[in-house]
Amino acid sequence: MSEVAGNPTAASVSKSQAGSFVPIWGVVAALLVIVALIVIIASNWVFGLDFFHVFAGTLWISTDLFMGFIIGPIMSRLDIPARMVFAKKLMTTMMVVMPTVVICTLTAGWQLARVDNFFTAPYAPQHGWILAALIVVALLSILAYTFLEPANIVVLMELRKSEPNGLLIGRMMKRFLYTAGILGVLQLSIIVIMVRLATW
């Protein structure tokens, strides 16, 4: 993506093309989902917690795998103008979807662990696997919020400018795609851990 630098086409995205920072409908939908999760937690509804944890976790895993192993290689082969347009569409959606999915997965999972007494139960044979799951999830969250989201925000802010910095966008997209690939590998490991725990 280093060829973005110095390419006049890469700096030709106008402010009007950049559109809104995030889609309003997405923000509203995310807030509704969070409110629904809060209601479920308050009512201590185990089925609802299970649903949120499994559904949001599936979205998180599938998105990371898709981004890391499919979207990443495709974007690296796009020409500069197409990459800029695609990045703008992708980043605005990811800004809403991923934080919501991560929050729902972790919050519902934590509440399920509390309901199932994982925090107070005596040492169990699967303790090591549970610890491994917590470590992997912690790494996923740290990478998402220290590398993925900042890169997302920087690209969106640049694309809103009348003359975006193509070099900066190229660096941030590299960071985004490399991080997505690492997250994809970590998600494969969490699948192995979850299957092991489910078949204990």
Description:
The protein is built from six helices and no strands. With 200 residues, the chain is mainly α. Helix 3 packs across helix 6 and helix 5 packs antiparallel against helix 6. The N and C termini lie far apart (45 Å). The N terminus is likely disordered.
Question: What does this entry show, briefly?
Answer:
With 200 residues, the chain is an all-alpha fold. The protein has 6 helices and no strands.
Descriptive tags:
single chain; 200 residues; mainly alpha; 6 helices; 0% strand
Large-scale geometry: globular
Uncertain runs with pLDDT below 50, 5 residues or more?
Answer: 1-18
Give the class from helix and strand content and strand pairing.
Answer: mainly alpha
Largest sheet: none
Distance between the termini: 45 Å
Tell me the β content.
under 5%
